[in-house]
Each structure stands twice: as C-alpha cells, then as structure tokens.
Design a protein that fits this description.
Blueprint (H helix, E strand, L loop, with lengths): L1 E5 L4 E5 L3 H7 L2 H23 L5 H19 L5 H37 L1
Antiparallel strand pairs: 1-2
C-alpha cells in the first residue's frame, strides 16, 4: 500500500507492509509450515478445553499426565541414524575438551614448577 502526501514543495511516499503483499511472495514450503502451525494451534486449543477445570487432586494428576502424553505425541523423534550421529558428535566433543583440559593442566603445572624452583 503506497500513500502519497504532498507538503508545500516536497512529496513524501510512505510504504507500509500488508499481509496480502507478503503472502503472494511466500514459497509453498512457508505456506505449508504456516498451515501446520495453525493446525497445531487448533489442536492445542481443543486439548486445553478438554482438561478438567476443577477436578481436585485426582483431576490435576490426570490433567498433568494427559497433557504430558499429548506433548509426547507431538515430538518429532529422530531416527536411528540421526541418534547415532548426534551421539558420536557428543563423544567427539567430550574427548576433545578432555584432551584440551588435560593439556592445559600439564602446561600450568609445568609453569608453576618452573616459577616455584
């Protein structure tokens, strides 16, 4: 949307963004993500309405576990290959930092021995 305002001898053009102009430029992937997000929001709303409001202690415990189960169903779990690659990355970073700290310890102990002699 473009608005033109005229002052005495200057012309000012103001441009404002609107949803209509951005939706034309969006890619199909973005549209799918937005649609999925809307569907998730709708399911969250339905689930929130299904929880008991005043069920006492038992209702609270049941509500907690039903909410936890609902959230676990929404988790996108990694496959076996991704799990092993991430586990390998954690082990490699751990080994790197163990070696780094051991080298720093050796360096500082050597420097302190030289200083104290």
């Amino acid at each position: 949307m473009v608005k033109k305002e005229q002052n005495s001898d200057k012309q000012v053009t103001r441009i404002s963004a609107s949803d209509a102009s951005t939706s034309k430029k969006s890619t199909p992937k973005t549209t799918k993500k937005v649609t999925a997000a809307k569907a998730t929001d709708a399911s969250n709303t339905k689930h929130a309405q299904a929880e008991p409001k005043n069920g006492g202690v038992l209702g609270s415990i049941t509500g907690y576990f039903s909410g936890a189960w609902f959230e676990l169903r929404q988790v996108r779990w990694p496959n076996r290959r991704a799990t092993w690659s991430l586990t390998g990355a954690v082990i490699m970073f751990t080994a790197f930092f163990v070696l780094f700290i051991m080298l720093l310890d050796l360096l500082f102990s050597y420097v302190f021995e030289v200083i104290l002699k």
